[in-house]
Batch of 3 targets.
Target 1
Amino acid sequence: MNADLPTVLFVDDETSVLDGLRRKLHAQNWHMLFASSGAEALELMAGRSIDAVVSDMRMPGMDGAALLEEVRQRSPATIRFILSGHSDRDSFFRTLMPTHQYFSKPCETDELVRTIERALSVRKRLHSPELLALVSASTAIPTFPKALLDLFEEIQSPTGSVAEVGRIVASDVGLTAQVLRLVNSSYFSLPSRVSDVRQAVHLLGLDLVRSVAVVSGVFGLFQTTGVDMEKIHRLEELSLLIGTIALRIAKSEGLDKEMADQIHCAGMLSHIGSLFLFANRPQEMMALQNDIETTGEDIISAERRQFGAAHPELGGILLQLWGFSEAVVEAVLFHHRPTDGGLHCSDILGPITIVHVAQFLARIKTEDDLKDESWKADLDLDYLSHVDAVRHLDKWAMEAVTT
């Protein structure tokens, strides 16, 4: 047995389902374990390192949601999937906290394999077991008190509107991530992925958003006692500005709505990894931010020195675990230095390129700032030259000061 191969545990009380999975997945480059109950699954996990668990929802005794919550507590680094043939809303709500992704039966084998492989692959970027466990155990990015209060007031109001709920959600990175994660679950069986948060709220409807907010508890508040919340607010405002500038560039280039939405989404979520660190390591992040202001060290080097990883890989791994599209995940992973993703991209108008440029354009405040080209100093010019995007920079810069 090759100890370097990942181990995936499948759990289902129907022997025929396990036999089918064993037969269909025999050629995969994984170690596979099979259990017919939650209790048996936990026994198999004892003393073993399990990389991923794929569980049915409805099982006698311990159901899938209860099992995966146990897995999250006992082995937080393990990736957790539900594969269920039952689609009642209450059961789905119970899976939101402990589960990374939800799949409906019947699920195409290729889709299941692709999802597991991508989740296993992207998390290899984290070399710290402690940080990997912290990321994998996370159920949400916290929201800011005002955004959550506004959301609850609007969805519980007799005159609450989908448009206003969409606006509130789009104003907060944590809410945006959770709503997009929710709408793209296979529970809703949408024909294509949604990257526009306002469209997501429209598709879900106020009743469902209300139920999720009240029942599941996935919308949690930042709890950062002793931390300068203004710094966190500025970080979120920067993320939203990057998304806005990236969307302006996409529209100015005449990109179709699906691509523009992906670019906007990736820009908005580009610093979700930093918000994750503020939520989970607040004191260390505050000290790091203060050091940067004093020493001038770049944020990527400082985060890797302090945590063993920086916000691009943390954000990319979170979004991958939560089932975001490959285009959005890659743009977040490589938004600081696209070259790290390899010089294989030939699409100068893709999410990686535009989000990378947009984050530096966010430094520009007025047209006078355009005369000072210092904002270009930290661009990945090797990559931008490779994809022939350098000639677009001045045109794109004008979008940063568009009112």
Target 2
Amino acid sequence: MLDLIDIGANLTHDSFDADRDEVLERAMASGVARIVVTGTSVTSSVQAAALCKAHPGRLFATAGVHPHHAAGFDAHTAAALRALLANPAFVAVGECGLDFFRDYSPREAQRHAFAAQLELAGEVSKPVFLHQRDAHEEFVALLRAVRDRLAGGVAHCFTGGVHELDAYLDLDLYIGVTGWVCDERRGGALRSAVPRIPLDRLLVETDAPYLLPRDLAPKPQSRRNEPKFLAHIVERLAALTNQPVDVVANAATANAERLFGLQRNT
């Protein structure tokens, strides 16, 4: 049995409302012993706090504001995040970053929210949980300017190629890989980059309920992703890197423990 940590699952999503406990049981049965619940807004971060309280030692969380919600970021938002991050169950700041693909929030609002959360991460000495889409150069520039004040970070749901990977590794970031690597339509650049990810920089995540691995057989009828499929992603990574599955799994788990300050379960 593998001992895995899903470093990014949106367990506060309403698609889990009817069977969240069963989802957690299936995760544990598949070797996913710990999960980091992604906070994408103050509301979802507060909900994540309640989940962590109900499942101590198994669930942890991030607290942050996704770029899609950046338009509403203000001093009250920052204060609410700061209060949440005082809880030891919160292990990172984010999901934060830039998304110029959707532009659901104005770009200047995204820059402001991202910069504020980077400052907050330095203040509370917790790593950053990072999102970037179609904003690579500006994203890297903002990170580089403050990198020496950050307690590490992860490029969450990395989908890029070698160029982006090298830039993130130069910033000493961890690389979070999802079921995107299993997508025969869109995952080619990522699959080419995966062998270049050092084992001591690799993290694994499902981003559930999103990004259901497309090569699952049989596929769940609901098309909903959940943490129990993390082992499938690890198997794909092992094949791409020509490494034994347990070597990849153990490395990813040790990396998550190191980045987020998690104690190994006994």
Target 3
Amino acid sequence: MKYKTTVLKILFIIPSLSAGGAEKVMSFLAQNISSKKFKTKLVVIGFEKDNAYDISDVETVYLNNASVGKAFLPLLKLVHSEKPNVVLSSLSHLNAIMGYVSYFNPKTIFIGRQTIVQSAQKNFTGRTGFKTKLFNFAYYLGYKGLDKLISQSSDMKNDLVQNQGVNDEKVVTINNPVSQNFKVKDKIPEINNSYQFITVGRLTEKKGHIRILNILSKFKSPFNYTIIGDGQEKANIEELAKKLNLNDKITYIPFTDKVNIYLTNSHVYLQGSFVEGFPNALIESISVGTPAIVFNAPGGMNEIMINGENGYLVDNEEMFSEKLEIIVNNLKDYAPIKVSAEVRRKYSSTQILSQYENLFESLITNNS
């Protein structure tokens, strides 16, 4: 039985609003879900000072807690007092916590939004042996309490069902949206003596910046490579760039709210990731008409990339270098409107919002 309310209340819960794909999508959803159908509130476990996104269009509550693990009781009290129809959380550790909260709130529907292909993530966690088994069991019990899991790609859904023991009927796939701020550019940027390459994302090992640098060290034409993002791998990236004599060709930008402008002014987007969820920056680059070269890795890349149309999906560094040469030598063949067409059709914000709204309404109806 759902709570008897005159409006359908949705709580969107996120660990923080620091720069990141999950944070961007959750803040977007909380502010753009139909206000005629839903009353929304955004709950941030962390602190307002860490905000990287404008959330002026949604009521926001900060728990001012540095740890998701220690936020169980505040979250339990909040959900009990708010009595929402639906709670949507994002990021796997928070989803597990909300699964435990659900056991004390049987009238509320709990949905977890998965952000990574979990089994492919294991090479980057550092957890082994008994601790890994205990950790996985704790996650399993938490996830059991969720009513639905949202996967961002077919890869992610298959991993949840085949490797994480989640019932197929419990998983629904909803891709990430392309924000309306990312308009198709009018033309391919002038070369002006050097090609402009770009990568956007946290500086972590799994994002594969290191192999991009190795590839660019062999690129013979003049170029500038813009890296937008910050993270624990920054020192290693800078050290390798120096070793490869690339320092004067790289521009580092820790954070900017003008990503759309940088993508628009670039010739090629470079993605070195070993695993993804459903990469926002990649679909944003393609949506403005900037083609991409992407390593074939778990996380929806095979759903996004159309070889020869919006860039290339590659299997190794040699193939990456070959396709980069093909694109820069044939830029005129990558008209922005052609590059962006399929991504804009499949992942428009209007379409993705409608999928979330339909999911919420159907679950609430079935729970009444």
